[in-house]
């Protein structure tokens, strides 16, 4: 419930009504009384303690007329528990393979789970199949009835062939009514098509609406829609359905019955290649170090960006003052960025700037002013001088790199 | 340049605004990549109508010949391509990742690889070297990242917009180039019999649903400025402690490498 303080007319009325059974308990501490020698005595402490008025402000009423509404009437704020949706014996399964970018369900994944929920109805169970470790803590509210974790070294990193084998094992174990994968560039689009080729299913791709038994998806270069009967395998676009929002689900763990067939990978992952972060278009960059008016030492800022391997961004003030080129401006009149981590140094968080970082996952703020808007938006804020913190951060990263080299050697 | 046998599969594209036939953007990038790898040895292959003018756009990139497996519109290109490639000594098949006309599901390279039993690489950006029948390639990832892969040849590779931009198509060579039609047996595609293509509808904009029980909450949701709260705030800490906290978050998110 809200924290707004309200008058309680009923309590005030009881306090006035001497015949009410609760009258005594509604009396506040006595402020004045007749002393033994006929002198009126007052307790100034009680008066000065005052009471909290309807606007949340402390009031002192020396007339003694105020009655009732002692202290703040607070309803203990209860965490709203969403109703639990239980499926004991699912009639069928709907398998979802979320992308889990960075180990968490992305908004695309959640839309997909919403669609799966819709297809599962009351009798089906939504199974999420995930590979490796995850950092997601909210599978239950995302609509996952069953969770199947496929673990093993073979599935780590880029291993589409091994993953498809694992998914075919799931196919033979559960025979799901539908397979749902995100049609994204972060893995789902590829994995889904590989799975379709393996299972010999013709998928519906770029699906943006499922209505009844029909799926509508984009075709060609997006100028046309294709409408068809709902196939078993669906590769759905973002916002294909509303995410689950008003139920909780069991997240019961499932196991693969058999070990996944092992095959020699024909495509071997040799790891990521270092790319120059300055070359990555800002709108696409994954990690942005952005500087504003609070950055005083721009040379060090650039060094920090290199040390962290981050793409540089800036607020409008930093650009207007000539410290950064115009194409680095983030915000309403600059670039709308989609970084997973946005490190804002000395940026106050004007609304024009915050608009530009609306799609960022994690925002870290470094600022002197603990009350500024950027800190309200940030997931982690460090209050302090930008130069000192950047220097310390560079040092920390340097030692980490050193350790890494020593470990590798 | 290597002496690989490379085939680039090309299709007829559609201009995004006028919808006029043209060379498909991604297929042209595949041809560009092939030209850089194999030069004149690159073979162009199309399944469809040999009369299509747009095909000449690929010849204009500096190739003399384009092979066409002749089939009418609405036929399934996959069996023809599988038959053709199985018999050839092709080591690398380059395709775009999605056609600009028709269904455009992007399934073709995957199905081709599955039927041929070859490995498949998605988003090929660069071939670094080829040794002993193993190619070392760079794969384009979202957000401008690259990944190095080792893949056994022969293989199928699709390119997307991260591959090198296609060179311009010159008019003269485009006219002079030969389009060689091959007779093949035609297999019909069943999809279009049961599905319908229609002009794309604009997608409904997602509304922000506010689930508030009280008026005060609704007011708050409507006027809220920053989606505040929940963030951790470190105050009165030394720069080192602050940096440590930021560092931990960066490691957790996996953006430091
Ligand atoms: C039409 C219009 C469009 C605009 N479009 C954009 C846009 O696209 N992008 C954009 O960014 N802005 C835009 N603006 C400008 C925007 O309103 C703000 O003026 C601007 O974002 C503020 O930039 P800033 O946060 O860097 O500077 P300031 O608001 O001056 O903030 C500086 C911050 O740094 C902190 N600080 C100071 N010294 C230190 C230190 N030593 N260590 C740590 N912190 C320190 C301060 O506490 C303060 O919070 C636009 C404005 C208008 C009117």
Determine the structural class of chain A based on helices, strands and strand pairing. alpha/beta
The low-pLDDT segments of chain A are 68-72
Write the CATH fold name of the largest domain in chain B.
Answer: Rossmann fold
Number of helices of chain B: 8
Counted beta strands of chain A:
21
The gyration radius over C-alpha positions of chain B equals 25 Å
Percent range for β-strand residues of chain A:
15-25%
CATH class wording of the largest domain in chain A? Alpha Beta
Number of strands of chain B: 14
- Residue stretches of chain B low in confidence (pLDDT < 50, at least 5 long) are none
In CATH's first tier, which class of the largest domain in chain B applies? Answer: Alpha Beta
Oligomer: heterodimer
Pfam family, one (chain A): ETF_alpha
Protein name (chain A): Electron transfer flavoprotein subunit alpha
Family (chain A): Belongs to the ETF alpha-subunit/FixB family.
GO molecular function (chain A): electron transfer activity; flavin adenine dinucleotide binding
SSE map:
The complex is a heterodimer of chains A (409) and B (257).
Chain A: H1 9-16, E1 32-34, E2 40-42, H2 44-49, E3 51-52, E4 58-59, E5 84-85, E6 92-96, H3 107-120, E7 124-131, H4 139-142, E8 146-150, H5 160-174, E9 178-182, H6 188-199, E10 204-211, E11 214-219, E12 224-229, E13 233-236, E14 248-249, E15 252-254, E16 267-273, E17 287-291, H7 298-308, E18 311-314, H8 316-320, E19 341-345, H9 351-356, E20 362-367, H10 373-377, E21 380-383, H11 386-408
Parallel strand pairs in A: 5-14, 6-7, 6-9, 7-8, 8-15, 9-13, 10-13, 17-18, 17-19, 19-20, 20-21
Antiparallel strand pairs in A: 1-2, 3-4, 10-11, 11-12
Helix pairs in contact in A: 5-6, 7-11
Chain B: E1 6-9, E2 12-14, E3 21-23, H1 25-38, E4 43-48, H2 56-59, E5 65-70, H3 78-87, E6 92-96, H4 108-116, E7 120-121, E8 124-131, E9 134-140, E10 146-152, E11 155-159, H5 171-176, E12 178-182, H6 191-194, E13 196-199, H7 215-223, E14 232-234, H8 239-253
Parallel strand pairs in B: 1-4, 1-6, 4-5, 5-12, 6-11, 7-11
Antiparallel strand pairs in B: 2-3, 8-9, 9-10
Helix pairs in contact in B: 3-4
Bound molecules: flavin-adenine dinucleotide.
């Amino acid at each position: 419930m809200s924290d707004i303080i309200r008058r309680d007319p009923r309590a005030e009325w009881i306090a006035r009504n001497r015949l009410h059974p609760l009258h005594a308990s509604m009396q506040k501490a006595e402020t004045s009384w007749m002393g033994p020698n006929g002198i009126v005595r007052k307790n100034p402490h009680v008066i000065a303690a005052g009471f909290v008025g309807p606007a949340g402000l402390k009031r002192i009423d020396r007339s003694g007329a105020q009655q009732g509404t002692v202290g703040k009437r607070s309803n203990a704020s209860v965490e709203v528990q969403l109703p639990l949706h239980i499926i004991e014996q699912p009639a069928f399964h709907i398998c979802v393979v979320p992308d889990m970018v960075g180990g968490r369900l992305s908004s695309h994944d959640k839309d997909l789970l919403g669609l799966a929920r819709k297809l599962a109805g009351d009798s089906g169970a939504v199974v999420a199949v995930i590979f490796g470790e995850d950092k997601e803590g909210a599978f239950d509210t995302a609509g996952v009835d069953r969770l199947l974790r496929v673990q093993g070294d073979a599935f780590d990193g880029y291993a589409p062939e091994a993953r498809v084998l694992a998914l075919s094992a799931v196919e033979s174990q559960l025979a799901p009514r539908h397979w749902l994968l995100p049609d994204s560039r972060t893995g789902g689009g590829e994995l889904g098509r590989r799975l379709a080729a393996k299972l010999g299913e013709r998928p519906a791709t770029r699906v943006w609406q499922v209505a009844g038994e029909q799926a509508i998806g984009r075709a060609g270069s997006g100028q046309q829609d294709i409408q068809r009967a709902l196939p078993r395998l669906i590769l759905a676009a973002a916002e294909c359905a509303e995410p689950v929002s008003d139920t909780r689900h069991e997240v019961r763990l499932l196991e693969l019955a058999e070990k996944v067939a092992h095959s020699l990978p024909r495509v071997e992952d040799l790891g990521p290649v270092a790319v120059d972060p300055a070359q990555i278009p800002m709108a696409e960059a994954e990690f942005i170090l952005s500087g504003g008016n609070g950055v005083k030492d721009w040379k060090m800022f650039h060094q920090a960006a290199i040390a962290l391997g981050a793409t540089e961004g800036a607020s409008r003030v930093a650009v207007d003052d000539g410290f950064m080129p115009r194409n680095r401006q983030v915000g309403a009149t600059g670039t709308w960025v989609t970084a997973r981590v946005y490190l804002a140094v000395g940026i106050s968080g004007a609304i024009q700037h915050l608009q530009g970082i609306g799609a960022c996952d994690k925002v870290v703020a470094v600022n002197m002013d603990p009350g500024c808007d950027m800190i309200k938006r940030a997931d982690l804020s460090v209050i302090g001088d930008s130069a000192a913190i950047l220097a310390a951060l560079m040092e920390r990263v340097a030692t980490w790199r050193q350790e890494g080299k020593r470990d590798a050697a | 340049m290597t002496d690989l046998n490379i085939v680039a599969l090309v299709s007829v594209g559609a201009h995004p605004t006028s919808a006029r036939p043209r060379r498909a953007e991604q297929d042209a990038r595949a041809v560009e990549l092939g030209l850089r790898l194999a030069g004149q040895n690159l073979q162009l292959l199309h399944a469809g109508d040999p009369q299509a003018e747009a095909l000449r756009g690929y010849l204009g990139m500096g190739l003399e010949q384009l092979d066409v497996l002749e089939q009418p519109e609405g036929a399934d290109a996959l069996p023809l391509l599988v038959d053709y490639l199985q018999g050839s000594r092709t080591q690398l098949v380059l395709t775009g990742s999605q056609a600009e006309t028709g269904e455009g599901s992007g399934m073709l390279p995957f199905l081709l690889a599955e039927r041929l039993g070859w490995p498949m690489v998605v988003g090929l950006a660069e071939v670094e070297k080829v040794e002993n029948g193993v190619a070392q390639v760079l794969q384009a990832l979202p957000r401008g990242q690259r990944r190095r892969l080792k893949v056994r040849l022969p293989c199928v590779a699709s390119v997307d917009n991260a591959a090198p931009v296609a060179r311009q198509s010159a008019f003269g060579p485009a006219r002079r180039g030969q389009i060689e039609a091959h007779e093949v047996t035609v297999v019909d595609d069943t999809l279009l019999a049961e599905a319908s293509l229609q002009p794309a509808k604009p997608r409904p904009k997602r509304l922000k649903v506010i689930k508030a029980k009280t008026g005060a909450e609704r007011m708050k949701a409507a006027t809220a400025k920053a989606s505040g709260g929940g963030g951790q705030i470190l105050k009165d800490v030394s720069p080192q402690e602050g940096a440590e906290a930021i560092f931990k978050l960066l490691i957790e998110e996996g953006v430091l490498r």
